[in-house]
Design goal:
alpha+beta, 2 domains, globular, 11 strands, 4-stranded mixed β-sheet, 4-stranded antiparallel β-sheet, about 425 residues
Length: about 425
């Protein structure tokens, strides 16, 4: 059913007519992705205010959509511009044309929404393993007698599954085009509840859920094991063959596979030198580049199609862990993984399954962000689980304090020293503020 659904969707999408409403949400989502340069974002915002231009854009995209199978990047290549993020990492963004970016954004969002809907349907089937009940038959019978029902919609387990499915299952993919509206308005009744609207809120809520589950497992089973890991350079290291093989297995039709393969094999033009960018990012200017180089591995940064491809690959890992461990759920935010269980052996099985898949897909876990903690008085940490602490920023999960997150003073000291070094190197007020 999943394969038929995705194949049918691809055929239907190629015959779809893009209208003005589609252009409005597509422009909003593209601006939110921060893919375009500042100058092109300004132009796109002006386009969004002009109904005539929006109609013309829709007409051009419809022509491209009708010949999707033969779409390709410009033969002379696409400039790759370096950008430095707040965390100091430098990534290369494609400086493509506005029309091309809009077209790819539309296709990527449409596929992402359909793929998530199909997997949610799959998750509701018997193919998805639910964790075994901790209640004995006697406990279940007593509950039915006292509650006069066989369903327990407000149980802790049911609430946990609801959180998992609503907020953490394939959470990088949108549910609908309406989710690109702003989240400025917060219901007063919900302001003290868990929030999931932004990436920061999503992760903060996950930490609350993990801490609560640790407390529950300690109370019910007197022990709990938590594992956290992260894939190293996930986007740049994704093998194109892995993506295409998995999409083929899911039933994506050949014309759509040809388009995705063309999207992945982007001819890149590296404009300017990295040394000049690092010396003065503000004064960095593009210079004529050599002949374009075809991307052999990895996905373009900040493209919705890249997110779709990455989530398709990682879902296979999610499902493999679910089947092999009889129901362990991977809390995953992009390539950041968290999971826990009262039995250390089940966590070890999940960790082995993840490593087996990573080896097959050509991926590698980031050892600096990988660790595990065992809380409780029964067994010790399983020997097959990764060594290392579990961190989130300057917080560390501490086994001696019952699995609570505490401030890592050693990391704070390192951060203070680094900040002192950066501030000392400044020679103006503006530089000091930006350090």
């Amino acid at each position: 059913a999943l394969r038929v659904r995705l194949a049918t969707f691809g055929d239907t999408l190629r015959r779809t007519t893009i209208n003005e409403y589609d252009m409005e949400w597509c422009i909003k989502s593209l601006l939110a992705a921060d893919l375009l340069s500042d100058a092109k974002q300004t132009i796109l915002k002006e386009f969004a205010q002009n109904p005539v231009i929006i109609k013309e854009l829709a007409s051009v995209l419809n022509m491209q959509l009708s010949s999707l199978q033969t779409w390709h990047w410009p033969e002379d290549g696409v400039p790759a511009e370096p950008r430095k993020a707040i965390n100091g990492k430098i990534r290369f963004y494609l400086d493509g044309e506005i029309l091309t970016s809009l077209f790819l954004q539309y296709i990527g969002i449409k596929w992402s929404i359909e793929f998530k809907a199909a997997l949610l349907q799959f998750r509701s089937s018997r193919a998805w393993v639910l964790p075994p009940s901790n209640l004995s038959k006697v406990d279940v019978a007593r509950s039915e007698i006292f509650l006069n029902s066989t369903n327990f919609p407000d149980s802790i387990e049911q609430r946990r599954r609801t959180f998992q499915q609503s907020h953490y299952f394939m959470c990088q993919l949108p549910n609908s085009v309406d989710c690109f509206n702003n989240y400025d308005d917060v219901d007063e009744d919900d302001e003290n509840q868990l929030r999931f609207d932004t990436p920061v809120e999503l992760k903060q809520s996950l930490l609350h859920i993990l801490c609560t589950d640790v407390l529950l497992n300690r109370a019910l089973h007197n022990q709990c094991t938590v594992v956290r890991t992260d894939l190293e350079w996930f986007g740049p290291s994704l093998a194109h063959q892995s993506i295409l093989t998995i999409l083929t297995f899911f039933g994506v039709s050949q014309p759509d596979l040809q388009f995705i393969e063309a999207f992945l094999a982007c001819p890149l033009k590296f404009t300017g030198s990295m040394n000049s960018y690092l010396a003065d990012p503000a004064a960095y200017k593009s210079t004529p580049a050599d002949s374009p180089r075809i991307r052999q591995r990895g996905t373009p940064v900040a493209h919705s199609l890249s997110v779709f491809c990455g989530e398709a690959v990682l879902f296979v890992m999610d499902y493999a862990v679910n089947r092999k461990t009889n129901g362990i759920f991977l809390y995953r935010i992009h390539d950041d993984f968290w999971f826990l269980d009262s039995q250390s052996t089940r966590c070890a099985q999940a960790w082995k399954t993840m490593n087996d898949f990573a080896d097959l897909a050509g991926l590698k876990f980031n050892q600096m962000k990988t660790g595990s903690v065992h809380v409780g008085e029964k067994d010790q940490l399983h020997a097959d689980l990764p060594q290392g602490d579990i961190h989130w920023g300057l917080l560390k999960m501490d086994a001696t304090s019952g699995g609570k997150f505490v401030i890592d003073l050693a990391m704070v000291d390192e951060h203070v020293v680094e900040m002192q070094r950066q501030l000392t190197a400044t020679n103006s007020i503006f530089a000091w503020v930006q350090a």
